[in-house]
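Table 4 source record.
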Amino acid sequence: MARRGGTRGRMRKERLRAQAEEMATARATRSTKQQLALLDDRLGEGEGAKRERGRLALLLESKPKSNTKSSKSNVDGESKSSRPKSRGDNRKAKAKRNRDREEQRSTKSRSSTSTNGRPQGST
C-alpha cells in the first residue's frame, strides 16, 4: 500500500487552526458573565473548568462597576501617555528619580542633625 504523501496531517492541522481561530473570536466577543453562563450550560452548574471559573470570578470581582474607561497610570501616578518612550527619555527619567530620592534623603538627614553635625537628642 502506498502512502498518500502526508497531506492528511497538514489538512487536519489547517482545519484545527481555523477552528481554533473561530473559537477564539467567538470567546473574545463574549463577556465574563456570558462565558460563565456558557460553561454552566455545557458542563452543568458549577461543574468542571475550575481554573477557568476561578479566573472569571476574579475578573468579575476586580472589574470596576462603571463602564467608563479609567486612564491607566503607573506607580508614580503619571498617565501612560506621559511615560518616557525612548532610551534617552528613560535615562533622563531615571536620573530625575534618583535626584529626587537623594534630595529626600538629604532633607531627612538635615532635619535630624543639629548645627554642630551631631544627631539631635545626643550630647
